[in-house]
Structure formats: C-alpha cells, structure tokens
Design brief:
By secondary structure, the chain is mainly alpha-helical. It has one domain. It is built from five helices and four strands, in the order αββααβααβ. The strands form two sheets. A two-stranded antiparallel ribbon has the order 1-2. The protein is globular, with a radius of gyration of 18 Å.
C-alpha cells in the first residue's frame, strides 16, 4: 500500500507538471454554454495524456535497471520475470495493461495475491512476472547504498 501511495504522489506531480507545461492547466471539466456541454475534447486529451503517463511510468521503471517504480524502491520490492531476470519494456507494458483485468470484478485479480503460492496477482500471472522483497542494493538500483526492508533486522 505504501508503494502505491508513493507512486500515486509521483504520478500526481508528473501529471501536474505535464499539464501545466502543455498549457492545459486545470480548466473545468465542462462548461455549459447554451445548454450544451463543451470541453469534451479537453477531457479526452487529459485522460489520454494521463493514461500515457501512467503506462510509461510503470513500464519504463519496472523494465529499467531499477526493476521497480519509485514506490516499490521505497519499500524494497523488485519486479522480475519468472526466472528472476529484469523484465523487458514489452513485458512491463503487458503487466500494466493486465492490471485492468485484475481490477475487474471487485479487484479479484489483486486479491489473488493473498491466495496464490508465489503471491502473484492476475496481472503478474498473465505477464509472467514476480514481485519480491530484496535487501540487495544492486537489485534496488541504489549502487551500494545501505537499505533495510521494513520488518527485517
């Protein structure tokens, strides 16, 4: 949960910077003019940009040498393929979009983590990925910095 909160804050900041840089700012979602709803194009543009930002953030960071988003790094998690290797951008993309399926039907795909032997959600099974804790700073992309995973001594 902490990893998701950190990633949410990172994405909020990046999204704000992106929208301000593009001059989108924060216009109202809609404005009534003569009874018709306008700004639908701005809403679609905003949604498309945010989807693009989220996809690239997750796919690029999880397939990078960090093997994790900033939130996962903060709690000592890495994403690997089933053999423990770094995932490709394509696999990271598949994992990101498979999360849509994990969220369907009351988030059962995410709840699977509690019941599967290797603690994998539906998106991890579909993408062929694993998420695990590590204390190895090289796997965390921290280049020798000391790191202690919560709960370990």
């Amino acid at each position: 949960m902490l990893a998701a909160a950190v990633d949410g804050l990172v994405l909020l900041a990046l999204g704000t910077v992106l929208r301000l840089a593009l001059g989108d700012g924060y216009p109202p979602l809609w404005t009534r003019v003569g009874g018709s709803v306008v700004h639908l194009a701005a809403l679609l543009k905003r949604t498309g940009l945010l989807l693009l930002l989220h996809w690239l953030y997750y796919a690029l960071t999880e397939s990078s040498s960090w093997q994790a988003t900033l939130g996962k790094l903060a709690v000592g998690l890495v994403v690997t393929d089933e053999a423990g290797r770094r995932i490709s951008f394509a696999r990271g993309t598949g994992r990101y979009f498979a999360k849509v399926l994990s969220g369907l039907a009351l988030c059962v795909g995410y709840l699977m983590v509690a019941f599967t032997q290797r603690k994998r959600g539906l998106h991890d099974i579909l993408a062929g990925t694993l998420v695990f804790r590590t204390r190895d700073p090289h796997l965390l992309g921290l280049n020798g910095c000391s790191f202690r995973v919560k709960g370990e001594r």
